[in-house]
Amino acid sequence: MSILARYLLRRFFLTFFVSIACFILIFDLVNLVENIGKYVESGAKASDIALYYLYFTPFIVVLTCPIATLLAAIFSIGLLAKTNELTAMKAAGISIYRIAVVLMTGGFVIAGGLWVFGELVLPEANHQKNIIKTERIERRKSESAGVYRNQLFQGLDGRIFQFGNYVSKSATGEDVLIQTFEGRSLRQIITAKKLEWRDSIWVGTGVSLKEIGDLDTASQPILSVTHDSLVFSNFREQPGFFEDWFTRQDAYSMDYFKLKRFIAVSRALGKDVTPQTVDLYNKTSFPLINVIIILIGVALASNPRRAGIGISFGLSMGISFVFFTMVKVAIEMGHNGIITPVVAAWGTNAVFFVLGLILLLRVPK
């Protein structure tokens, strides 16, 4: 790595991490001031509130990362322009494109780190945050939060569970449909009025079981049998599996691969998965804005007249406001089927990429 690259990236990442720290502090303080009355009224412990904001932090990091990246790019280049270092670099034959490539390399590092962070840290943190808010701060009973209706679960050994109702506290499901697949072939269909976890094993009542053989060659391809009660000793799924699945059905509480499995299961059972598909694509597109937005930052900050700290901050906030507004509108349109999931997730990135290229090409070399 050249001396120039190290110099630029050091300044870039320093600004980035300071910005993230400031945003975390601001978001937490604003949220605390807004909700302090609720916390006092509910009698929440200070330790629970502190833990809530600890688990709230990963969401703030993911949300504000593009703003911090843009601010770091604008501030880094703007300071070079203000001190005439940018002019000296150009005189030495270093083009603005080379500088942009160096900072975009840093953007790729941030995008990759943000994707990993969003997959490994954010889902669990968001899940724990919701639990603390519901049970410790709002003091809601677990029974009210532990009844799930019309839920799907991708089990083990090719099984897909569908519950009319599932009560997590008693580990009991009602109006249960269990389909077992072998590859893409449906091999077994089980319906049960009730499925209960008894002595570490699943027991069904009012069970109807259909074994499906080869429809082309078998003399009796479908064998049906009913049971008043049936023990499913081969089921290795435990109640905790269902609880984890049912409580993490929003994009922030599921990682990419779990969301992808959820979409596949839901689609196989005829569910509309348009909102989930938009969220799945957005998990990939959102981190990459940290690369694209650097183009705009470099182009705007190259003018010495825009090099002040106040101006840099104002530009960052204004551009970020436009970006998040466009993202929100596109995602909502995608969720409602007005535009395709791909356009909903990637459309804003495409617009900002084209805008960044145009602005960068207009910068004096």
Quick overview:
This protein has 365 residues and is an alpha+beta fold.
Features:
365 residues, alpha+beta, 2 domains, 6-stranded antiparallel β-sheet, 11 helices
Task: Explain this structure.
This protein is α+β, with helices and mostly antiparallel strands and 365 residues long. The protein has 2 domains: 3-133 and 276-361, no CATH class; 156-236, no CATH class. It is built from 11 helices and 6 strands. The chain has a 6-stranded antiparallel beta sheet with strand order 1-2-3-4-5-6. α1 (3-42) runs parallel beside α4 (96-120). The two termini are 23 Å apart.
- Average pLDDT number: 86
Total count of domains: 2
Q: Structural class from helices and strands? A: alpha+beta
Helix content: 55-70%
Distance, first to last CA: 23 Å
Radius of gyration: 27 Å
State the helix count.
11
Question: In terms of topology, how is this protein built?
Answer:
Elements (H helix, E strand, L loop, with lengths): L2 H40 L3 H37 L2 H7 L4 H25 L1 H16 L4 H4 L1 E8 L4 E9 L4 E11 L2 E14 L2 E12 L9 E11 L6 H8 L9 H13 L5 H28 L7 H27 L5 H21 L4
Antiparallel strand pairs: 1-2, 2-3, 3-4, 4-5, 5-6
